[in-house]
Amino acid sequence: MMDYGDTSILSTVSQIQALTKELVKAKEELDKERFSHVVNKLLQLIETLPAVDLSLVEHRAVEPLVQSCAVNLWNEAVTSKNEGTVLVDQTAALRHLACKLLFREGGPIVAEKCKKQAMVALKSARAWLDCGNPSMAEETLGLSEKALGKLLALLVDSSNESDKADVSYDKSCIEKDMLKVLAYKAESAFGQQQFENASRHLQASREMLVKFPEEAAYLSMLSYNCGVERYNGGRLQEAVYWLRQSYEIGKEQHAVSARHQARTLRLLSSAYIDWDPEKYHDLAANTVALANADCSHPAGLYLKLRILLCAAEDDETTTQAALRDCLHHPELTAELGLTAIDLCVKNSRHNLVMSGLRQLMERFEEKTEADSIRLFHLKYLLHSCHLAEAETLVNQIIERRSTRHRFADSIVKQLQSLLWEQASSSFEVKQYEECLRWYSYALRLFDGSENGSEDLGKLFRNRCACFCALKQLDQVDSCA
User: Dihedral angle at the C-alpha atoms of 175, 180, 185, 187, nearest 10 degrees?
Assistant: First the structure.
C-alpha cells in the first residue's frame, strides 16, 4: 500500500481528484462494491491530508483544488438524492467526504467558511442518521459543533457594531444549529444504545426550546420514536421515560397536534399496563383517559376496556359501557372490534362477548366484514360448548350461502375446518349421531366446484364410519 504520508500535498490532492472521478463513475454505473472501495481509499487519503496552510506556496496552489473536490462531491450527493439514483448510504458517504475535505481548507477563520462547514457537517450527520449509521453521524456532529464554536467566538470577539455586521451568522442562528446538533447527538447516542448519553443530549436540547419552540415538534417525534423502539423491544421502563418526554415536550410548547399527543399517551398507557398491571393500573387508566379526552380514537377506547378488565374487580356496568363506546366509535374497524371482543373471551366474560358480537354484527351486517364476525362467533360458541347456539348460527350461515351470498373462500374453508373439528371431537367420545350432524353441516358448505376433491372424499369416508358405528349399514351406500 502507498505511504501517503511521504508524498507531497499536491500529489495527495491529485490522487483525491482522480479518485473523485472514479467514485462518480462507479456511482453512475451502479457498481456498489467499487463505490465502497473508492470511498474507503478517499477516506484514507483525506485523513493524511494536512490542513491547508496558505503561508506555504505549495499549499496555496492546492487550496482551490481541495475546494473543487469538496464542491463536486457535495453536488453529486445532492443530485443523486434528488434523482434517487443511489442508495441513501452512498449519498451519506458523498456528503461525508465533502465535509472532511472542507475541514482541511486553510486560511483565516472567517464567518462564511465556518458557516459552510457547520451546515455541511450537520447535513452529513443527518444523512448518516437517515441511513441508520449513528456512529458515522457522531463524527460529523463533532465537526459541526467545532465550526459553530468558532462562529460563536467570532461573534463574541467582535468589538464594535461594524464588526458585528460582518458576522452574517448571528448568535440566534448559531444557537439554533447547536440545538439541532444536540438533538442529532441524542438520536445518534440512542442508535448506538448509549441511553444515558441520549437522555443527557435530549435534556440539553430541550432546555433550548424556550428560544426555539418551533423545534419542539422534531424533539417530541424523536422521543416518541425512541419510545416505540424501546416498547417493541420489551424495555418498558425505558419506553415510559421516552414517551413521557415526548408528551411533555409537545405539551409545553403546544407544537404537536392533539391527535399525535393522544397517540403518544395511548402507547404510554400500554407501556404502564404491560410493565406491571397491578402497580401501574391507575397510571395507565388516567393516561388513556387523558388520551381519549384529547382525541377520541377506537384504539384508546379498546385500551380503556383492556385496563378495566385487568382490574381485580370491575364494575359490570362500567365495563359494558366501555365496550359499547369502543364498538360504536365511527372509526372502528371490524378487526379491532373483534380484538376487543376477543379480550372479553380471554377474560371469560360471556355476557360481554355475546353483547359485543350482537352490537358488532348490527354495525357491519351489510358489509363483507360480517362473515368474519360470524366465523368468530361460531368459533367462540363451539369452543365454549354452547352447541345449541352454534347449530342455530350454522343453519343461518348455510341459509345465507344457499341464497347466493358470496362467502370468501378463506372464510368457507375456516368454517368447514371448525365443523370438521367439532365432528371429530364428537366421534372421539362416541357421540356418533352428533358427529353426523356436524359432518352434514360441513357437507352443506361444499358447492359443486369441490366435486372429486380430496377433502370431500375424506368427509364422505368419515360419515361412513359414523354410520358403521351406529350399525346403520343401509346408509353406507349413500357415502360412496
Answer: 150
**The pTM is what?**
0.81
Q: What are phi and psi of 125, to 5 degrees?
A: -60, -45
Pairwise CA distance, residues 293 & 271, whole Å: 19
- Please give the C-alpha separations between residue 86 and each of 68, 131, 393, in angstroms, as whole numbers: 22, 12, 58
Write down the pLDDT at residue 111. Answer: 81
- Residue 162, classified by CB atoms within 10 Å of its CB into exposed (0-12), middle (13-18) or buried (19+), is exposed
Secondary structure (3-state) at 56: coil
Instruction: For residue 106, give the DSSP letter.
Output: -
Chunked into runs of 10 residues, the chain (480 residues) has average pLDDT values of 51 86 82 85 84 66 80 83 70 88 77 89 94 93 93 73 52 91 96 95 95 92 96 96 96 86 97 95 96 95 96 85 96 96 95 96 92 96 94 92 82 91 91 90 76 72 86 71
CA angle centred on 72, ends 67 and 76, rounded to 5°: 150
Residue found by looking up cell 451568522 in the block:
169
CB-based burial, 362-399: b 16+ in 10 Å, e otherwise: ebbeeeebbbbbbbbbbbbbbeeeeeeebbebbeebee
